[in-house]
Design a protein that fits this description.
alpha/beta, Rossmann fold, 7-stranded parallel sheet, 16 helices, 13 strands, elongated
Length: 409
């Protein structure tokens, strides 16, 4: 992990030298590096340059096809947040909205061609006809501009050559950090006055009640080409654990403690760890360290497990629905951040105490009829979801928001 961190840090330093003219003498100084780090990484919060509203652009485009500019953070492979963004962009394109994608503060993809090539290979869900740009520079007028993460919101705040500003919010990003500067920089963006489009009602209610943000929500579905019901092929008691020690909100340590306790209660249990390499952890029971599993293999993997333990301390991902659609049973917390999707009728609801989690898992492993009922209910619940229906919600949020804001220009 540390080797990867330092390699990434060196890449950032090279980028700053090349593209921002930072002198070697400054970069090589410990104090200078601290200064550059703050200014370059968080300087968007004090950037004052604005992009003013252009009446000529508005007049020339207001009656034409709706245009959205999406400002996104740079991505690696397999980012669930980007998959969701690209899914909606492609769906909105099919509904007649023109979409452009702009990467904010790029490091790896420094030309439009390189970005386009990477996206076409790594994210086939994105319509190949979508216009993509490796920088926010030279962004033209649009009917609506969309922030998709807290750093991108700072650019959107400064871009005024538009009618509406939207915030596509998939999680409360302040919770990704300890209470400190990053926590507050993220929280501040929810007060920028953008129209929120939130993943689920927990975020909608939180942003409305705590930040006075106008929000509309959408729900999740799943990729029905990838996830489908499969029968379990043996009688071995098996647990899947979404293991992400690098992602604090996934509470890896709590989950591992619960599994250690479960092993004491059910010594013949098998556990599948997937999501990250956990070979550096002492795990004294039979397990498979699957690491990052290809998407087309996940559904069968879930189906071969009696229960899929997914710790979720902030907003839910698509994982619970994907597990349900694969004919397995999800076990996750039942707090407000999850209750908009999971409940006792379609999931094993756990708390955050490892002993209680182990007890709940043991109970259901020894109650095959209860597991069967949850599998059937989860499968039915997942099948009733629909991405087209959720796209319609996002489409209406955008079209109606732009129409309302245009009247106030």
């Amino acid at each position: 992990m540390m080797k990867k961190y330092w390699a990434f840090l060196k890449k950032c330093i090279r980028y700053l030298k090349k593209h921002h003219g930072i002198p070697d003498s400054v970069m090589d100084s410990p104090d200078g590096f601290s200064l550059v780090h703050v200014e370059q990484v968080f300087g968007m919060a004090i950037e004052k340059q604005t992009f003013p509203f252009n009446q000529k652009d508005f007049t020339a485009n207001k009656e034409g096809q709706l245009q959205l500019n999406w400002v996104i953070p740079e991505m690696g492979r397999g980012s669930g947040g980007h998959i969701n963004i690209f899914r909606f962009i492609s769906a909105l394109e099919r509904k007649g909205i023109k979409n452009r994608i702009y990467v904010d503060q790029p490091v790896n993809y420094l030309s439009d061609a390189a970005l386009k090539s990477f996206l076409s290979e790594a994210y086939p869900i994105l319509d190949s006809g979508i216009e993509v740009h490796c920088s926010v520079e030279n962004m033209p007028f649009c009917h609506g501009i969309v922030a998709t993460s807290w750093p991108t919101a700072y650019f959107v705040r400064r871009f005024n050559n538009t009618i509406s500003k939207f915030y596509f919010v998939q999680d409360f990003e302040s919770y990704f950090y300890a209470v400190g500067s990053e926590y507050m920089l993220a929280a501040n963006t929810y007060r920028f006055g953008f129209r929120g489009i939130t993943a689920g009602d927990w975020l909608k209610h939180k942003l409305e009640s705590e930040f006075n943000m106008t929000c509309r929500s959408f729900y999740f579905s799943y990729d029905k080409d990838l996830y489908h019901a499969t029968e379990k092929r043996d009688n071995k008691k098996r647990i899947f654990f979404y293991a992400r020690p690098v992602t604090p909100r996934r509470a890896f340590e709590l989950g591992l403690l619960a599994l250690l306790e479960l092993y004491q209660r059910v010594p013949d249990i098998e556990v599948v760890f997937a999501g990250w390499d956990v070979s550096n952890y002492y795990i004294p029971f039979i397990h498979l360290n699957a690491g990052s599993v290809p998407l087309d293999q996940l559904s069968d993997l879930y189906a071969q497990c009696d229960i899929c333990l997914v710790m979720s301390l902030t907003n839910l991902s698509l994982l619970p629905l994907e597990v349900m659609a694969s004919n397995s049973v999800i076990a996750t917390q039942g707090d407000e951040n999850n209750a908009w999707m999971v409940n006792e009728s379609n999931a094993i609801i756990i708390d955050n105490d490892p002993l209680n989690i182990a007890q709940a898992l043991e109970h259901y492993l020894n109650s095959p009829e209860k597991l069967k009922a949850l599998r059937e209910a989860g499968l039915k619940f997942a099948a009733a979801t629909d991405w087209d229906r959720e796209t319609d919600k996002v489409y209406r949020s955008i079209v109606e928001g732009i129409k309302e804001d245009e009247q106030n220009l």
